[in-house]
Queue: 3 jobs
Job 1
Amino acid sequence: MATIEHLLRHADLADSPSARLDAELLLAAALGKPRSHLHTWPEREVEAEPAARFARDLLRRRNGEPVAYILGLQGFWTLDLEVAPHTLIPRADTELLVEIALERLADGPAEVLDLGTGSGAIALALASERPAWHVWGVDRVEQAVALAERNRARLGLANVQFRASHWFEAVAGEAFALIVSNPPYIAAGDHHLSEGDLRFEPASALVAGPDGLDDIRLIVEQAPAHLLPDGWLLLEHGFDQAGAVRQLLRQRGFVQVHSRCDLGGHERVTLGEWV
């Protein structure tokens, strides 16, 4: 039998930008242990069954499948979320959207909407931090809504609800103090769609027209009908789209329009207030 360290050393994930981390996550899952176990007991021998599972999962990763889809789990904010191939994998960059949302409103009661919720990551992170908020999450994909609801139930969060809806369709007549969205924003034909993890993620959650802004245009146009006075709209977008999104918000009549940078220094979230 091979040891933990031997299996990790010979994992052969050279094509992955996070090869060692990927191998550790997959082996820890195969063993049913936390990653710390691998560092504490590197000389431990691995039984045949978990070693075989590790080998199968390594092959899937070598073929490009994201670790999150292989494990069915992804960490986001302070939460561990179930993920599946019909939803985007929550990413660390999107935590900026959560941070800004938490800054915009006080801790008291408020109605908040997450458009295109996917796995429910943003809605659930906000609900976990603000128990007095009532958070709505909507998505046009019914499988995504069911997944988000499973995450909600497992986390035991009672102040969030999920609905099937193409953007604002299922919230007619509702008004919110805050609307957040990480919508599709990649241009059709962008070469990144055929590279890395994006090859395995749903195109409907990634692509938005020739310039990647079709869904953002729709949200900016329709959001004022669903915002309370002094309500805010927060949008995640591509690293080179901030200027265009600011222009869309200003043209629609939003004020205090500005963008915020992610950890890589790219303008990643743009927001505006409706008065």
Job 2
Amino acid sequence: MSVSQPLRELISNCTLPANEARILLAHLLEKHYQLPRSALLSRDDMTLNVAAQEEWQSLISRRVIGEPIAYILGKKGFHNIELLVGPGVLIPRPETELLVDIALAEIAKLNKPTKILDLGTGSGAIALSIASASPLASVVATDQSAEALVTAQQNAKLLNLTKQVQFLQGNWYEALIQQSQFDVIVSNPPYIADQDPHLTQGDLRFEPSSALTDYGSGLSCLQAIISDADRFLQPGGLIAVEHGFDQSESVINLMKIAGLVDVQAHFDLAGHCRAASGRKLKNPII
């Protein structure tokens, strides 16, 4: 092992983009020295010990081949919380925070204890963000992946939300123990079409394919969730789903066909239609 370079030189000489190098180096400083990220500036002449040097090289190598930074660090910030993540779960993305905001707005509107269902919870990102932000929320979160549920339950324990969020294993509504009705249903299901080139690019190459694609048109999971929503929503209850940037019209049509009312498109911060919502009729026509 060669003599370690100062932090500033490690960043400037790194083959990775500077912002990624800083993230990985800050992780090392916290892990090995219990130093905050600000040490990258305040102690930029500092050198790493042998163990940290070896791990630095390992982190760079993993990132160079494309492994997502979230998997390398083992964690990812989302909405108002930080989550453990790993190769068995989808990496939470900023656009999915839109679903959390929609649910929280509905809880604020109802202003009473609110039953939430999160379908396909993965790391627990949506369910735990909602529960963390609102003590009025009681959340049931489902996923067919046992591996994902282990991670979600770990996150719930770390966030002290085990009493507020219940996890069930199974495919969409099939996971529910009994016929239940909810005030809000939210879901970020697999919606990338099979053979979409994005599946072989960037972080998506490392994420579980079953959390990304339905191995078909990209609409089959959305259709299953939307078509059965009426059975699991309280009268007037809200369902909100995330979808692809080019699927808004199709998803809105699915909601209308399912008999949902007050159907709306929701835009992410980039200005793309990223979610759709609809309501069950308060007084169904007999």
Job 3
Amino acid sequence: MTQVTLEALITGARAGSLVSFPTDTVPALAALPDKAALIFAAKQRSQDKPLILMAASESDLWTYVQGSDLEYQIWQELAHKYWPGAVTLVLPASAIVPKVMNPTDPTTIGVRVPASAIAQAILAQTGPLATTSANFSGQPPLQTMAEIEAQFPEVLTLKEPQFQGEISGMGLPSTVAKWTGTNWQILRQGAIKLNF
């Protein structure tokens, strides 16, 4: 059994284990950024599909990206509008982002703050984590901890009573918007409709 308490999940994540927890979209498969290779291996995920860096608050994310003062202003305006929430911003990566987060294009990083109390409680204790949906690559996202435990027995998942009352995710992935240097490009319309 890999279902654990919240404390054990946080301890495991900090120690470099693969973990899974609910978010506001679909349940996440997560690991420390420098352990991101574990996620690619578990999901049998192609190296050209980057992971998302998820954090408890936007202030935890800005050191992972780099841009001009004007760009930061533009990014923060959008972040203030949609975070916490189901919008992932793909921005120029700073030097502290491990290459393994985005092996084929380490110059960018997707960042997000989930609107989920349980996810924020975990991320506040672990710091930003590399995340993606919990499923084998190309399969639909798994929706319950039981499904995740069955498919990924090595992953630490939360015991269900730990988050009763927590609204489960909407089952749709986040909307992904990439900064091109001059404007936003929608890479994926997900849970929140963005128009630029």
